[in-house]
Amino acid sequence: MLTNLAIKNFAIVSFVEIDWQQGMTTITGETGAGKSIAIDALGLCLGDRATTNTVRPGTDKAEITASFDISQLVKVQKWLQNHDLQQDDECIIRRVISKEGRSKGYINSNPVPLAQLKELGQKLINIHGQHDHQLLLKPTEQRRLVDDFANNQKHIEKVQTLYHQHRRLEQEKQQLLANVEQRQAKQQLLQYQVQELDEFSLQANEFDQLENDFKRNANVQQLMQVSDLCLQQLSDSDEYSALSMIQKCSEQLNQLVDLDANATAIAEMVNEARISLEEASNDLSVYQQNIDIDPQTYALIEERYATAMQLARKHQVRPENLFAHHCLLRQELDGIAVDDHRLEFIDSELDQCIEQYQHAAVKLRDKRVQAAKQLASKITASMQQLNMEKAQFSVQVNSEKPDQVLQFGLDHIEFVASMNPGQPLEAIHKVASGGELSRISLAIQVILSAKIITPTLIFDEVDVGISGPTAAMVGKQLQTLGQSTQVICVTHLPQVASRGHQQLFVAKLTDGNQTQTRVNQLDQHKREQEIARLLASDEITESSMANARELLAS
Fold this sequence. Notes:
alpha/beta; 6-stranded antiparallel β-sheet; 6-stranded mixed β-sheet
């Protein structure tokens, strides 16, 4: 439940802090005092869109903080845990809005996006406004009310999942059909390109070896000359060859070691160098012997190398990337084949999806039909209690375009009523006056509020257009609702205000330069005065005071 609301620099509020109680709280005030300002601030704190007059003139930012006791709210605790926002049995939601329009939201001191404020707010508070009866005329709102009453959320999610699946399949099919000619032309080109590269059959990393072999065979004469020259320099019998000179040096160092052991390491290094030169000379000799000029082999290598270079230029890739390019073309060709295969089977998937959708939609319809009867019966009874004794209410559930796949099922839901005996049932906008629509809307809100458990219910001037015994019955229904949940009601009716377990009074104060709003909790005496004021249209009399005491005592 809501336990505290602190409002700072919001609209014409400088600072207001309200402690809320369990049960029913009524909010009254003079006309133009801004009775709904606390509700507006709470809505803003829970994610409503800010307006240009959100921040009090002359200040930098508005700040609203709402505190909730969630010790009994298991679903809210679980939501907070899932979002790493849990903090014992209290939940504190804060929103700060700068005069430039920038907004920041916090849950238990953790910054969160606006969407999370809204998501959590829907689990904590349900606000019914004075214009809800206008929404009641919309078919989408009538369908939503029936589904809320029937707890159809899971069935709707199933229908919507299949609807989106069907839509995706249809879009995929249309895209595949639209690209048939383009795909066929692309397929022909790819088949030619892949076949050409298949015939050449270049293997992974082959080009690097091919290029090396080509260069080697193209330069055999130079390889022979260079290797022969190196052999002469290394191991020729000439006393100035590398091996001859290092051999002499090694012998001389060995003599040096005999005289001074400190030269041992040097002698060993030179000896190792001599051995390395001997091995290099032997290996070079073998290498030279293996340099073989085979015109036939060279011709084959030259031809394959030239073909690889030609194909690389043709496909506009580097020759070392030709193999990878070949693989990509083959994959693209295979993908076209997959698309063609997909087109062959997509109709069967669509048929299966439609069958599943029809099954889910029929289940949803059955739930709606069942709920429609129960809801209509409850609304009729409530309307009769609200001074519409002869009224009858019905919820019609008709099949809408049964061969189509629609997002919210196949049903067209319409609220119809007869306000007087002998009159046929017709759409409520045709037979109900504005005041009657307000009462019907209020009846539905009370019925749904009793069925859909929300910790805090707010009724913001939903009693507009009613008075007398009807107002007394509305107050009684809201008070009954407040016995099981927290109810906050902004009202101008004494019959409703007197039913509250707690009453707040909103006053607008001005010093000629600035205007401020104050919200005060009324004690028993001040409640009597406020109820008397409401009864007597602002002029308090002994009679209105007596009537006020009677209302508060009832």
